[in-house]
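call fold(seq) -> C-alpha cells
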Amino acid sequence: MKIIEIPDQESANVGNVCRRIFDLLFAGTALILLSPLIAVISAAIWLESGGPMLYVQTRIGRLGVSFRMYKFRKFHASCDDSGMPLTLTEDERMTEVGKILRSTKLDEIPQLWNVFEGSMSIVGPRPESMAFADCFTGGMEKVLEHKPGIFGPSQMLFRNESVFYSDACSPAAFYRRYLFPAKAQIDLAYYPKRTLANDVIWAMRSLFAVLGFSGPATAPLTPDPHSSMSDNMGSEVGVNK
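ret:
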C-alpha cells in the first residue's frame, strides 16, 4: 500500500484547525469555570474605583493587523494610553485591586474572550502595544506570522519582566533594546516548529507558574549590554545554536 504524504501546507492547515479547536475548548471551559471569579474581580474593581471594569487597548495581531485586547483594569480610571506603555513594579497608576491582579496575572482573564473570538490563541507570541510597532524590523517581523497568545515561552520566562528595569535608561528604551529582541528570538525559535502537544505543555507550565508551582518567577539571566539576552535563554526553549 502506498502511503500518501501530506504536503507541508496541508499539514499546517490541519494543525491550525486542531489548534483552533483546542483554543475554543480551553477558552470556553475556562470562561465557564472562572465565571464566579470574574464576577468577584469585577465587583472588587467597581467597589474600589468604579467603572469601567475592563481595560481595552489596541494591540498588534497576526500579520500586523490591529485588534482590541481585553484585560481587567489595573490602573485608575482617569489614566489613559498617553503615559508609560509598560507597567512598572511600583507603578503609581495602579489601584490596590490592580496590584493584586498584576501579581496574580488575573488581569489577563478577559483575554479568553479574545481567544474565543479568534483574535488571539491560548499559546502564541505576546501581542505588543502600538507603542512598540517600530520594533518589528530586521527579521523580527516574522513573529507577526503567528497569532498572538496568552501563554507561551516568552510569557513564561519574562512573566515578571519589570524586575529587569534599572535607572540607567528609561524602561521603554530598555525594553526596545534588550527585552523585545530577547522575546522575539525565543518566539522565532519556538513557533515555526511548534506542535499542538508542545503548546499544551507550555499552557500547563504557565498555569502552574501563575499558581506558584514552578521555579524562579523571572527569566534566569542577567542583562548584558554587550550581548543579546536571548543567548542565555536557548536551553529553555530548545534553541539549536
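The chain has one domain: 8-237.
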